[in-house]
Amino acid sequence: MAKTFMDPHDVPTISGTEGWERMYPYQYQFSKEDPERTKFESSQIWYYDGLHYPEPHYPFDLFWDEAWFLALSQYNSRIFMVPPAMGIDHRIINGYVYITPVGIPDPNEVGKRVPLFMERAGYYYQNWDTLFGKWKKKVTALIEQLEAVNFPELPEMEDISVVLEGKGVSSGYELLKRYDDLINMGLLNWQYHFEFLNLGYAAYVTFINTTNQIFPGIPMSTLTKMVSGIDVIMYKPDAELIRLATLAIDVGIDELILKTSKAREAMDELAKHPSGKEWLAEMEKARYPWFYISTGTGWYHTHISWNDNLDIPFDSIRMHIKSLKEGKEVGRPTEKLIKERDRIVEEYRKLIKTDDDREAFEQGLAVSRTVFPYVEDHLFYIEHWFHSIFWAKIRQIGAIFQNAGFIENADTDIWFMKRDEIKQALWDYVTAWATGVKPRGPSYWPKEIAWRKGVYEKFKEWTPPPALGVPPDVVTEPFTIVLWGVTTDVLSEWLKGGEEGEGEQNTIQGSPGSSGIVEGRARVLKNVQELADLREGEILVATTTSPSWAPAFVKIGGAVTDVGGPMCHAAIVCREYGLPTVVGTGKATHLIKTGDLIKIDGDSGLVTILERAK
Description:
- Helix 19 links the parallel strand 9 (558-561) and strand 10 (581-583).
- Among the domains are: 233-331, no CATH class; 503-611, 3-Layer(bba) Sandwich (Glucose Oxidase, domain 1), CATH 3.50.30.
- Helix 2 (62-79) crosses helix 6, helix 6 (171-214) packs antiparallel against helix 14 and helix 8 packs across helix 12.
- The longest helix has 49 residues, at 355-403.
- It is 51% helix and 10% strand.
- By secondary structure, it is of the alpha+beta class.
């Protein structure tokens, strides 16, 4: 590619946000202080990571990015010794994260790493199910530890047990230690997250490459169907809602649920009836852990779980009740998926001409199906279950700060502090408590947070460029293609982006997400609350989708997302629900308006705007 994107060092500061850099870690800044680092930054291709972060970062929420920055990279570079890859480097501009894959340019070094990778990764592939079983126990134990952590107010006087039991430490010390423990649990959570994940995606990529060599030109949508219809717990939350909806009909309380609009109102009414009490008991069983599913991706503190707001699952239960009473099929069409999957695999098996190709195909397919449950299930354990509880613990600290006058609102303000700033503010709070003096925090943090809120609002108005720096002639890095959906053609489209009038653009090229062609009116959604606005047969257009949106899938004709590649979670979720989907369009939510008549082709990745809404 002859053209380049803007140099990352040349991106202008948004007027009124001067000094924004102090909201984020210093190492995340593009900088010209070190010539070697500057040269590296200018020579790389940096992608905006809209797959994970469709919105700018609150300072604290960047913690998860820091955690996976370390975890993903270390497993590639230092643990499994992936031959051609080190890690993924991260930067931030105007609140938005940019990433670049770091490869190994020396072919001799790549060659040295091959036997190391085969030994280390091979052990995991050979013992996958056993190690995955241990992983579940580790993560569940960590979540139990997390649930046990609490942050009470500091007492006016320590309990006498501190003296009589010779404890030797104060509540102030415990508060500081618990915060450190909380942060370390978050980091450990993400260490576990990537224990298997890179290997899981590597198995997908290997299978895709192997199959493309045997069957040149095989559609990606066909490949992805070969690894579908597998039972994973990521879809258990929706299955529980379907079970509760079915039970409500069976015991005759469905109309009572349908006529109420709020969860609290419905629960109060149900508690008056024996059948209602039985149903509520079943709901309580389902809540822990299945209602710890996030309403979004779990990456932002604003992505609350069903347990944080029971109105959300109740809305979905009502949706399922209506669908069931209308005789519609709800949930994943698993039998249909498996039948189609097996048919496709058998057809391609018959076309294989050599024993070597047959062995490579069968081995690649078997490993891909083995890793599939982890690749999806880890989402529930890590980003949904763990994150939901973690956010609640940080809110407890927010309440302490609000009561001490450090911040004005426990729910909204603490997120504008970096994780190390929270620790420093806790030191201020604890030492003032111990000394009997007024802390500095109340005179420092409210005005600083007010300024940061203003900066953040300006960040939201800015559109981050999809890429910065120097694009490669050909995109070959496999994860970039299958997860982020960034291909050579996509980069070419981005480079042309400024040359065409976007308002006149009626075709958008994305990546195949889930097979099928469908036409319908678009419904552009920004958050889970807007799901209630969806009408029968509409095509959902969103930055990404979440498994928690599954109850709405029975109503819609298809989906289009801004971000992601063919093996991203949004694409997998839509495939499992048999929903024609195009992912990784980059700008569908900007170019398509609610009411536009659109056509999507989930096999080619093309979206066409047929008619503009009047």
